Fold:
Amino acid sequence: MQTKIAQLRKEHKLTQEELARAVGVTRQTITSLEVGKYTASLVLAYKIAKYFGKTIEEVFDFSEVEVGESGKL
Amino acid sequence: MENYRRKIRSRIRVMAGYNSILVILISRGLFHPTAGTTEAASGFMSGLNVGLVLFIQLGLTYLLVKYGRAIKDEEKLETFYIYENDERRKFINNQIGGVAINILLALFALGTVGAGFFNETVFFTLLASLLLTAFVKGILKIYFIRKV
Structure:
């Protein structure tokens, strides 16, 4: 799954650790999201989008994710 | 976070209680099995049992110290909370659990069939393990189908 997390994080001058702590996950989860290895749950996608003041669609591209694939590694 | 602190406190109490019970059981020599047919086998079984229990105790003691420190330090507590509730970690653990039980079922089934050609006791032991694993998987499946 493609995301704009890395880009937004750089724009806000945030480290992965800072973003992870702010949304309540580990740094490794943010890394996996940024490289597209892990698909965020709806709750996590909402939290990250809200943190950056964006909508979920502006941060995450769910177009290639099938229903039931949440969390896929 | 206060709820989580309470949860950690109750975990500390349970672990300390469990650890104390283990100390009593070890001191009374209850981990020395008597089923060994040779002295070497009995010695190995006793050593393995006591070793496993000591390993569990060391792990529990490590966690007790770690949790004890965390409830006094807000930042450490938050780090623990995040680690324990991290959704990717939970997802990985769920995947491991699901896959592991299927692999075990397949291995027990293969082992049971194979053991039938060599040893009756091993055959029935593996068959019992296979049935127990299948039963546990079935119960968990019914539980989660009803729960979710």
